């Protein structure tokens, strides 16, 4: 080594005896386990606020404030905030009443249940919820799922009693499922549904919901139970003689009115209340119109009698024994998952206003709202986007706006239900269609196509699955594509060859930087993933192919033969027994070819595992470096290369 | 900037106008798709040998050699290799005959099928297989699965005909499944079963197989159909008055003899043939002994008549129509998966002899062997470890040893079957038990416990699932634990803060290197995973917690306030639309706090996605660097920090 020119500026002393990369000291198993569990289930450290306080009393108060977020904002609640929340709450209520009735019809449930569902769950959320912007209520997709999933077990037309009880039970299970996920801090399971799949699924579901409204718009008496586009079109066009032009005209007028107000409000955001109040306005105008012309005698169906009074108890209707329980359980889990979309809505508003929403706490809040709701004649509620956007636009300050909305709906339930007697169903259909048109997210789909074709395929697949077959198939496709995507990500990590950047000690990917040059006699590979059972055998294959190709190249160009393979482990976050086996096998097979293996920048986790599995002993500390450059320089110095000139370009 | 001391040695010119990290030029979509598909399904570039040839004729020959590996070694096959393969083949056959009969009994199939299964499939594998060391045959675990999965549909005791036909059909489907996986190049699905789970599952299955042998050892007539340890123990001890001491004594003698020869051969590896021939020896001695003392009259059950002649056709027995087909299909898929263990066996021998085995080609070979086997009265075959180890020890050189074994078994079938008339069943039980004791991999379990506690839990869970409940449950636990492990890996990537190493421009993890120091005013975070939908929201949470904690720390210590957050993207292999959204949101929320965001060393894939999603425009080229050090230096220069001294420690 003496007398050889020093290649580049070695920044760490080479071969001083002590290992360059230390093996971390052993820690007790329970300690490690605790740290892992904390990082997995409590990445946001939710109890920080509680732990920071001194004394039992203060901690109890902090814990209560953690459990009931309303205790955080109530003490400093101002009159100004109350005024804002009052306005927002009343505005949302004027949307909630017609939407609630419409969606309940969509769910094949009594219309009054849509109003019930805007009362009790909203109160629960006001106490438990940590978002300031969400408005609680039913959604179109959630409503559509009930007849789709429960209809076979209890056809709503033939056995409305059983169907309603099953709906309560499914809501109960959805609540238990949501709260359970939250309490067990498993909120992250929702992350496994990719955004792309959700966009496609929601688009497909909105299409299906719109198609279902053709029944109401055309005033048809009989309709198909299927939701796919083919069956619906066949049902519509096979009974053209039953189309009612009166219904169609009224519906189209309403729809045009609603769309125009939406367009107007979008142009002038300050006039948001125009579109927010439009559904109620069309409801009122439509009802008066039908009352005046006796529309019910001219083929325009009306809602009819609505019971007066707030939510009756339904706790005794829950079906908690087989055989009907299983279908309710399944429906509960699926709708519970779909209902979690509300969390995403809350998060996006929180993001834009720069405050924090805790996923798991939100799940508990929604879950409790649904559990209490299922005992008080409500069905699945969540935080729908349309209603929450109106709430935000109306200037809500806290979850108090939900309480205001609940009170307004309660007043409607107590005193105003008779007014809905003459409300035409076709107006409800128009309200649903106009709401659904906002769910289509074409710009998002275009963005997906531009940025990531695979994401777009997932989106399209989920959408077509819903439209052409049924909601369940669409959801399965969405989940399936998402999971396959994850597994592919995991099973096929990237390995790239690194080269030396000119005038620098940096080593960078040669496929990215054209000026990066390979070092003769050394192959530097970077692995960009944890090495574990799911990718170990792929990596084995891929790395040996890299080495073979390099050897063939060297043979062809008569260059310096391969002396050392350097693995840049900087990006290897973890390793398991299959991974350590891979390194061991690799070092064995390289040893047989008389090639040295070197590791650069292994993390502490990797060092520990390599040490425990005795692989470190096989490689030897001498060949483990803090950076790639050191490994290459050491190889060049050690392997007595004749043509050092090559490297001092 | 003028006049300020230069901090460290900046290795790239800072702010020259051109972007430091170039966005890769757009490539045609089909081009990218092709590259992706190639990397996913053909990581080993299997057609390289074919593509390298010139001319159609030479390519056709190369393709044939690729399809039929025997064409690779046959042309240069030597007499010396033939001699080695002859010795190895005959040695394996002497093990294959007793093992085949034993395992067929375990599968509740006619004993002769065990011999059939060592004939035809072995010939197919000799032509198609690419491993030189595997010996083809039935396995204990595979055999046990048949009664476990098919027994309910067709109890072997009551309806042996239907049961046999279902076994053929299941073998057929297993073959189709295996060949299909191979042809579709989906061999990597097997990788998703972690090594740890397999060790546990095999250990559990071996326990169950041993427990089942208590029936034969104790000479019991009636036994339970359940496989769990509780049921078996109850069945054994509820009929102590039916235990036959003659059977037990003979069985124990055999077992002790077999174990002693195993022990002896392990001590002296050159005498491997002692343990390889021991089963046949005990079979012969046991049969002669029973014949002489008329053991069948003293409670020692014997095999009885075996049909003479090689495999009859069973193609017409395949049941390819409902209702029975479905259970056969399910059994086929499960046993087909289990049968793939042979590939792992082949790989490990190939590894030690330093040659390559192609997973997908092996799958096709095993699949074809099973398809052909199912039409010639064979049931599920694979490459069992015990038999292959004997093959290797006996000095096999090529797959020809399988052909030799097949011929030897055929000779047995044609002329020697009457000799097995008096073979006692208890000897077969002893042979199975002795073989199963080799399947337990205690050292592997101990290594798992030492290196990775979570892996050990997976191992234990799968083992207990098999032993305490049934094989199906054990398998589900193994798959479940493996998948959860993958999802956790994906959902919880590591983020670590980096610090500057003294006297260097390197930035390294501060939790690993105590001497790494944070740079005042800059928070450097490294993300060690592709950023995509499954971890984007976790990363959002975790990164914002890092920033909050850093801000709190700064507030407490009155240090320089946070100026810049540098994300080291060197390890981020890919990004999807959720990931770009995360970067965008992060940059927005940091902007609101008046903190700059900088990216260091993003890969080309990441740069492309960021560019297409317009996030790059938001961050600005100025804040994208080739290395972390540059980002920090640039921040320090740009943000006009008063206390530069801090950095020149």
UniProtKB/TrEMBL annotation, chains A, B:
User: What is the annotated signal peptide range for this record?
Assistant: none
Looking at the record, the residues that make up the STAS domain are 512-635
Keywords from the UniProt entry: Membrane, Transmembrane, Transmembrane helix, Transport
Q: Main localisation, per the record?
A: membrane
Pfam families the record matches: STAS, Sulfate_transp
What are the BP-aspect GO terms? Answer: transmembrane transport
Q: What is this protein called?
A: STAS domain-containing protein
């Amino acid at each position: 080594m003496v007398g050889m020119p020093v290649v580049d500026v070695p920044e760490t002393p080479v071969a001083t005896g002590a290992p360059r990369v230390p093996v971390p000291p052993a820690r007790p198993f329970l300690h490690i386990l605790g740290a892992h569990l904390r990082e997995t289930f409590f990445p946001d450290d939710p109890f920080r606020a509680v732990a920071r306080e001194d004394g039992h009393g203060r901690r109890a108060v902090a814990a209560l404030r953690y459990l009931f977020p309303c205790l955080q904002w109530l003490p400093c609640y101002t009159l100004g905030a109350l005024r804002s929340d009052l306005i927002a709450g009343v505005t949302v209520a004027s949307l909630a009443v017609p939407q609630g009735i419409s969606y309940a019809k969509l769910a094949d449930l009594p219309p009054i249940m849509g109003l019930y569902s805007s009362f009790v769950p909203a109160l629960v959320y006001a106490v438990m919820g940590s978002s300031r912007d969400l408005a609680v209520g039913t959604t179109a997709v959630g409503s559509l799922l009930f007849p789709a999933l429960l209809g076979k077990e209890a056809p709503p037309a033939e056995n409305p009693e059983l169907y309603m009880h099953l709906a309560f039970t499914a809501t109960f299970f959805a609540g238990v499922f949501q709260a359970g996920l939250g309490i067990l801090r498993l909120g992250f399971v929702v992350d496994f549904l990719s955004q792309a799949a959700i966009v496609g699924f929601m688009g497909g579901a909105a299409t299906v919901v719109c198609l279902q409204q053709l029944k109401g718009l055309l005033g048809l008496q009989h309709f198909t139970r299927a939701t796919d586009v083919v069956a619906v079109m066949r049902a519509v066009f096979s009974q053209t003689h039953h189309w009612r032009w009166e219904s169609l005209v009224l519906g189209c007028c309403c729809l045009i009115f609603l769309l125009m107000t939406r367009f107007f409000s979008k142009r002038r955001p300050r006039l948001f209340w125009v579109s927010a109040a439009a559904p109620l306005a069309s409801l009122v105008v439509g009802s008066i119109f039908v009352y005046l012309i006796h529309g019910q005698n001219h083929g325009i169906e009306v809602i009819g009698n609505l019971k007066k009074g707030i939510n009756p108890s339904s706790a005794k209707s829950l079906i908690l024994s087989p055989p009907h329980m299983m279908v309710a359980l399944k429906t509960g889990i699926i709708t519970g998952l779909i209902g979690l979309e509300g969390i995403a809505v809350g998060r996006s508003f929180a993001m834009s206003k720069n405050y924090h929403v805790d996923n798991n706490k939100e799940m508990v809040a929604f879950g409790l709202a649904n559990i209490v709701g299922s005992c008080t004649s409500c069905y699945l509620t969540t935080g729908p986007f349309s209603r929450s956007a109106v709430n935000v636009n109306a200037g809500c300050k806290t979850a108090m706006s939900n309480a205001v909305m609940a009170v307004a709906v309660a007043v409607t339930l107590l005193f105003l239900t008779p007014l809905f007697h003459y409300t035409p169903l076709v107006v409800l259909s128009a309200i649903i269609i106009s709401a659904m048109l906002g769910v289509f997210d074409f710009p998002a789909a275009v963005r997906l196509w531009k940025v990531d074709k695979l994401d777009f395929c997932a989106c399209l697949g989920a959408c077509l699955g819903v439209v052409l077959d049924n909601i369940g198939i669409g959801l399965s496709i969405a989940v399936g594509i998402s999971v396959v995507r994850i597994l592919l990500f995991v099973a096929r990590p990237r390995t790239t060859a690194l080269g030396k950047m000119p005038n620098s000690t940096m080593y960078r990917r040669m496929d990215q930087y054209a000026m990066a040059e390979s070092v003769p006699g050394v192959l530097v590979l970077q692995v960009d993933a944890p090495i574990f059972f799911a990718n170990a055998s792929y990596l084995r294959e891929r790395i040996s192919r890299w080495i073979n190709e390099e050897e063939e190249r060297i043979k062809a160009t008569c260059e310096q033969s391969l002396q050392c393979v350097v693995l840049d482990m900087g990006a290897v976050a973890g390793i398991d027994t299959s991974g350590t086996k891979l390194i061991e096998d690799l070092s064995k097979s390289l040893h047989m070819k008389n090639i040295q293996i070197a590791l650069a920048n292994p993390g502490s986790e990797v060092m520990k595992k390599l040490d425990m599995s005795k692989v470190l002993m096989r490689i030897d500390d001498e060949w483990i470096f803090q950076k790639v450059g050191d490994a290459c320089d050491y190889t060049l110095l050690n392997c007595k290369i004749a043509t050092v000139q090559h490297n001092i370009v």
